[in-house]
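for the writeup, i need someone to sanity check this before i put it in the appendix. the sequnce is what the collaborator sent (i think, or maybe the updated version? ugh). structure was predicted straight from it, no edits. if anything looks off just tell me and ill rerun, i have time this weekend
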Amino acid sequence: MAGMKTTTWSSVVLPSFRVIPLIFVAIFPAFWPISARSQDDRCGLAKDFAYQALEQIRSGTSSEIQDGLQLLKHANEVCVSYGDAWYYRSLFEAKLNRTANAAYALDKAKLFGSDAMKSGANPFVLAAPMQPELKELPPVRNKWALVMGISNFHDAGMNLNFTAKDAKDLSAVLVDPKYGRFSAANVHTLSEMVTTRRIKEELNWLARQAGPDDLVVIFLSSHGTSRAEDTAEVNYVVTSDTDLQNQDTLFGSALAMVELSDIVRTRIQARRTVIVLDTCHSGGAMIASRERALQVSEASPSASVLDRIKQGVGRAILSSSQEGQSSYEGPPFQNGYFTHFLLEALRRNNGTDNIQQVYTYVRDQVSKTVSSRATVSRGAFVSGAGANAIVTPGQTPVLATSETGSEIVLGVSLSGAP
């Protein structure tokens, strides 16, 4: 399996957007001569600014919107034809009641074209908002799952051993009538070759199929990156068609975690949604060498990513390790340690444990197993300021939930089923 890895832009460590986004925009040209970059590079960079802008939006405060808007404006300074940035600018301006500015930005989005506009994306709208009048959720009507394990990549030197197997093994437990009780037709398993476009299509399938009273499971395992090592504001997933030639092509073609979080936040209506991020890798010498060449290193999804995904009702995000830790695999298991014990946990008590109980079992077993075995960390480096830092030893899975997320039971029988 693959680790969420943190990286820098070339050898430059940039300031935290969380702390000083406006200062960053002001000083950016001094660090990065935009005029010297190709048009493709500039538009790839603009996309990253747009993702950073979306990551600003958590609770939707005026300060978040203002900071995000500055990043979107800079995205269009870098690449004037990037339609998604114009579209999101129209939404941000509208939230600030700047009608004329919003209309201008929307006209530009229509002129240049915007995939986000076509899909109706809106970071300010929650698909499953809090409803104080709703005292408890009704029984589960239907269950859906998207299980993804990416093992083959554009650069064969980054291929993984157990990622695809983990996805297939988890799907088998979900459709088992003794444990997961999912309909096989409602579980889509993507393994080995998985492109960015295919992931987006399947996430859209989930958004179309799952209703408010349904349960949704999303499992994702692959290499990952982050643009800003110091804050891990934006995580990226490396897909099979990600171009790993260098850092510019990597970030320009990887799938931003913010796209996953926005679909969960704004499009999946199911008020019971569990996201499982198994972020570990096989640890072959070639992989570790390639990671260091790309200045990619392991890190779990950042706290900001987990916090953003859990917004709304019935959200639970289970990650394989804490920030700054590696995730491990190896004998005697034929899966990653995290996935092995997740499979065990989902079979306990005939699948009736809730996600908090599943997490407690997985956390205890993974932590104990990693600490007691002579397990070798694989390529666990953080690149920055010309030095490598060893990650925190051990492996402790993390659970983040909304107020109602901890009571979700993956193996629950459907309403009216025995």
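Residues 39-56 form the longest helix (18 residues). The domain at 143-407 is CATH 3.40.50.1460 (Rossmann fold).
thx in advance!!
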